[in-house]
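Anyone else keep sequences and structure tokens together like this?

Example one:
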Amino acid sequence: MMGFGGLAGAQSMHILSVPAAAAAAVILFSGLFHLFIYDRDRRHRQNLTFALTCVVFSLYGIACAGLYNSTSVAEGMAWQRAQMYLLFLSMIFFLWFVHDFTQMVPPKALWFFTIVGVVCLSVGYLYTGDLILSLSRPLIKTKNLPFGITAVYYEAELGPVMLAANLAGLICMAYILFVGFRFYKVGPKKKARFLALALFIMFSCVTSDIFVSLGMSPLPYTLEYGFLAITAFMTGYAVDQVVKASFAQEQLKQNEERYQVLADNAGFTMWTADLDLRLTHISPSIETLTGFTPEEALAMGFDEILTPESASLGMTVLKTQQALELENPGRSPGSVQFEVQIKRKNGPPFWAENTGAFLRDGSGVPIGVVGLTRDISSQKAAEEERLFIQRAVESSSDAIAMCDADFVHFYHNEAFANLFGYRWPKDLVEAGGLLSIFADPRQGDEAATGLIEQGSWTGEVMTRSNRGRHILTDLRANVVSDKFGNLLGLIGIYTDITEKIAVTKALKGSEERYRLVAENTNDVIWTTDLNLKWTYVSPSVFRMRGYTPEEVLQQDFSEVLTRESTQDVLHIFTEELEKELTDPEPEPRSIVLDMEFLKRDGGTVWSESACSFMRDDDGQVFGILGISRDITERRKAEEDRLKLEERLQQAQKLEAMGTLAGGVAHDFNNLLMGIQGNLSLMLLKLEPSNPLYGRIKNIEQHIKNATGLTRQLLGFARSGKYQVTAANLNDLVSRTSSMFGRTRKEIRIKENLQADAWPVEVDHGQIEQVLLNLLVNAWQAMSGGGIIYIRSENVVLDQRFASSYGIPPGKYVRLSVTDTGSGMSPEVRKRVFDPFFTTKEISRGTGLGLASAYGIIQNHGGVINVYSQEGQGATFNIYLPASSKDVMEEIEPEAKVVHGTETILLIDDEEVIITTGEEILRALGYQVFVARSPHEALEIFRDQAPKIDLVIMDMIMPEMQGIELYDHLTEIRPDVRVLLSSGYSLNGQASSIIEKGCDGFIQKPFNLEELSQKIREILD
């Protein structure tokens, strides 16, 4: 066989080839075993590198068996060259195995010897001839083996290149022995022993083969059997580790349940990770700590759980520990602690303390990391608080000193040193301690007694510095104890008030003068800081708001003003303060605000407040000064004035439009009267069976409809009531709503009428028209159907409510009509009673309905108003004055023509009315005088007064008004009977004439039946 010195060969070596081949087979099987172990657990790379080494060892054994079976010199030389290549490969792979097994081969050494091995292989492959193997020596050698066996083999002499390569191999072998020796000293003993035995066998075999190569040993070459022994020892170690791992797995399985309970209920979070810090397990407490479930945490990277700075710190700690492990395998510190910031699923990161250590396999090699994480947010906060307090004490402008539990001074800040002159605590201790700074020892004793008895003491004390300077200070001293009440020490805070007292005395006189002014003025003087916190309020606030100054100083700004005023004032003050702070040279100025203050009794009071910013000696704004004067009565008077102006403007607008509407209605009624008169005459001459009779009656119906429109106009124009009688409003409501409900099946009307409703004096037709207008308005507001609620009730209006509408207080009947429709916007609600204003389509309304309802109710001495919000329907309320008269039962007159024979004087300035009227009266059987002007009428009446039984006169005529004409008629004949006829309604002059004794009123246009019955009603 061949070591690093040569190659053995023979012509008949079949017996020796058998153990070499057997050894190769065993080594190959061991390599496969190590490869299997590596496949099961890839954390231990030494199993892979040793498996590769075993493959090379096995190939070397096969090369030896081939050499023993070679039958020619050429064949033997080929196997010898193959052995050389395999020896260098075995050196490279065995070195890598030792590196993985011990973790003690530095990367530089590893790569150096690897490159050397590769160079040796390359040289052996590229060069041939005597440089590699020299044939100058005999090729055949004979060895006598035990049991009488003789071995004859070939051996070529090594060339100079191969000698140099073998020397490099010996150096590599020596380095491997050095690493093994170091590992034996510092590594795990059992693991080191296995490696030491393997290296000892290799060293022995190499040494033996060197002696055989030099001819100094009768033994054959044994390296292939040394490879077998190395393989056996390392395989034995691997088996031992597999057995231990199986035993550990069983132990782990037995403890798994207890570990799981501990991990699930621990106050900290337990976790494991691989050497790349990828989490492999984490306890459920992670969800309490961070909000992430264990599954979410395992799916996250290390840098996703920690803040970037903490993730970087964690990697640095791991690398440091790995470096220590390389320097001292198995002997690095057991654990390491460091603080990190961990992210929360919902919330800011928090501070935690990590305690980590390596997880190791059975041989002590790190295979991962195990750690405990504990929330230390509260500790960090406490530490930060402690540091903050320490820095606050050190930077405080007040002099602060501390004593321990034995009253020995041990600390004071820089302000204390500057004030009293003692630079270091020991200086004050040597001078007699803290009591020595009291100018009057009795004050020191008083403070000490107060501390002992009460735990604190506050007062003004005269102190002195180490130079004898007297300093008046405000001392605040307290005892410091732990949570169990044990005394820890004392702390004293000294504030130099020498200058403050002097300034205070100087200001006291001026403050007294200002106080007298503030306390005796009706205006409220107040100051605030820049956060609008009250700093002073004069006593006059009690007269304005009912609160004492002390109470106001405890109130928030929003508790003093109404919400609207608070918002306005905050906005204005913020803007003004920004101007003050940004203007490089601000000029003193003031602003005047109207502010609504809250009173103790729940009311409010308006004030006019003059406000300005207050500045210190450096010109810096530090507060606000205000003087507030009660302007409630002034505002109320102003509001009343504006309301009256608005009401006056509305009234003037309505009056102007009413005058126009009334004139139009009057003239239109006169036109209708001419048409109606002619129709009545035609009907007198036609039989009902005549085809034209129906058409004429149809025209009459259209005239009635047109009359309804003129009544709407006259109602809006407030041009009077037609016929006023005491009525039960409920009867009018029921009749109108019943009629309306029958024609509107998509709505429901619900009535809630007070049974004993007071009577009201109204024109039935007009009130029914108002109700109908309100019902139509409600129906149109509910396009998809709905409910209309009608309610009546007796109410007594007080002076406050009544005066707001310009009506007298007293008894009223309120009628409310509520719909469930779309409601009104504030803009629509403001104009809802304006004439010709409508939100409906042109075909659905004229805009006169609500306007005429407003005029009619006003003309009846009542009130109509509306309450509505968009999307919440609307409620119209009508207030009609209650009457003491009894309700008279209505009797419907019979619709027939009544004739007569008396003499009638007809007075009108319209020719068409004179013509048709005369003809109608004559057709009814009366004798008729006609007059086309008041003067003509008086002339006729003077001549024919005894003959004239009735005067029918227009109310509005040129030359003379109706009331004046009536007076002249009654002067001529006081018992004259007069029937007023007008296109206007019963209002104004007509009402005055009726009150004077006029016998009746009929509104144009009227038909034959109405006129005939009215005449007979007066004459009979």
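And example two:
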Amino acid sequence: MKHTTKRPLGMRSFGRNLGVALLALACVLAACGDTGGGAYEPPALSGPRDAQADTTATTDAATPDVTPGDGPCTTTFRFTPPPGKTYFHVDVTGDWNGFANPGVALAGPDGTGAYEAKVALSPGLHAYKLITDGTLALDPAARRRKYVGGVDNSAVVVRDCKLPSLAVLASKAERPSLGAGTYAAQIAFRPGLGGPLLDEGSLKVSLEHDGAPASGLTAKSDGKGTVSLGAAALKDGKYTAFVEAKDASGAAADRLRLVFWIEAEAFDPRDGTLYMAMNDRLKNGTTANDVPVPASVDARARFQGGDLQGAKAVVASGALDELGVRTLWFSPFHENAAGAHKADDGVHDVTAYHGYWPTMAREVDARLGGAAALRELVRAAHARGIRVVMDFVVNHVHQDHELFKAHPDWFRTGCTCGSGGCDWTGHRLDCLFAPYLPDVDWNKPKISDQFVSDAIYWVDAFDLDGLRIDAVKHVEDTAIVNLTKGLHDEFEASGTKLFLTGETAMGWSDCSPPGCPGNDNDYGTIARYVGPTGLDGQFDFVLYHAAAYRTFAWDDRGLGHADYWLRASLSSYPPGALMTPFIGSHDTPRFVTYATYAAPASRGIPEAKWDSVVAAPTTVDPYARHRLALAWLYTIPGVPLLYYGDEYGQWGGADPNNRVFFRDEATLSVDEKATLAFTKKLGRAKTALLPLRRGTYRKLVAEDDWLVFSREVGAEVAFVVLSKSGRTKTVTIPVSLSLPDGTVFHDWLGGADVTVSAGALTVATPARGAAIYATRAP
């Protein structure tokens, strides 16, 4: 949905054109309220959609789920075809006319090639489709979706045009020096249709700093509907300004929320690592919330005492800063199921220590410390400039969930994924992950509204900075479109972005067309949910399976292979997508264990769950491989994931063996301490060197045992050298950017300085090691 009235703030950071032909259907702002902060002009989600989405809409006719207002508001639909395309007839049809075909005709094309029609709609959420030369289709630029009669439709919110509204005209935060931050914004009060002007006495503004009330925000009206906000002498941290106003008749505009940060450098998720921790396994901050568990539960699948108080202590210690962490991703905070259930083997009992069996929509699990502890954790992170992202489960709930008890018709309770006649692919949208985990039916508009409202609640109540959406490909597209739209509207009016990422687990195929389909489906499925109307990015499963363990843990592939598949990823996702490369996660065996059992005959050992015989490495080699993989991870483009414990090379097989309790440095082995020290060096390089964070990637040397590449931003460059070889080798690197002879480059990993000579750098690559060269000294 493209609106004709645009604001300069809050535009998504990546390009509007995702390489697909877009229909642009516009809804004029004066009558259509589906603008929230008014900050977006998004294209469609990239990639294919479900087949049912583009079939005829004859079954759409149903009672519209629209909240009636006092009267209709004129909504202007404007449709601009792709370049070079014209239509004889264009209609828009929707729940207001029973999806009649033909619908309401759009006049045109006009001089710009666009078609336009005005439709009187009551306030509320309306489903619609386009009809172009008789063919019904979704609007691929729609910013909302809605199911009617079991069929997916584009959707638009029509606000009550008789009510006033607040709109952001400008918003800017600055930090000339520590403690001297400033904020300024201009807000427009827009009267409702035929309504009176602003009641100056009704204007209220307030300010919060890291979730606590703060003072210093002023507001001044010009008497003509424009309000100027200002604040000065602001300390570093996260702020939220609120604006409330009524017109002279007492009608209130929706409260406006303006989120901004005062910090030395504007945040970008690529500027550091994304650190993932299991709440129950990081640190036990207090035994007061520890609970007994049934004796039948395997010790590895019990609650072990980790809590939010412990996580706060880790954050406050500064240990994560040393690793280059800028974003924290925690497993879900929701209250989870009590007791135990059978694991997927049907034998072993497991608890909900992991957080993925929610029973309450808006309660923090008391076993993790409760709501107050979560707020304290977020404040501690924000004090260090670290963002906090919560894992949000949208595919299922536990059978004891309050919503399932109250509204069982909102859920599916059919077949269990992987059982007979219920494969994971064919039933990806409706199968149950376990018999006790009802599947959320996103076909139902009411549960869609509920989950969007819940997501907004969590971000609002705990001052969170984003969400990681679990099991994205197992929910309808509606889930991602509506979630992201709701969050954008509520929190991004000032231009400050949430970080919204997701998990779409896919594989990798070692083949290329035309002999086989290659990885187009894997890339396409992940990319499908990424874009301005979707997520900011996702985890790069293709790169993980192609290179992470095959190149670095094993010797199946060389470093040239890793370079090839990295570049394939960079060209396969939407421009500007914030993709997350990783070498391990809570769903994979530990990297060090893959490296320990690298022999082909032993590779099945790490995959064992309950009968695991995995042991700690007895040689330095797995740790050396792990360090090389970390060097690759920290220096390639994206938002790298560091799974808790990987900073020191924690070992362990498949879940639950990869989720052991975090260990303090004093308990680590010599090799683990060496790995931790190495990761800290990588963290310092990542946070200090702009090219490593935001630079373009350029391959220089790519062989089986050697990989040299540069990361470049303007005139700044960093060179990265990786070696799988057991011997040192001298490599000559051609230097670009017209760097003069005599320019000195320093190795941020501790190697000797090198100097540009004859337009090149000659470096001695370390045996199974890495180097990061930059002109800036560590």
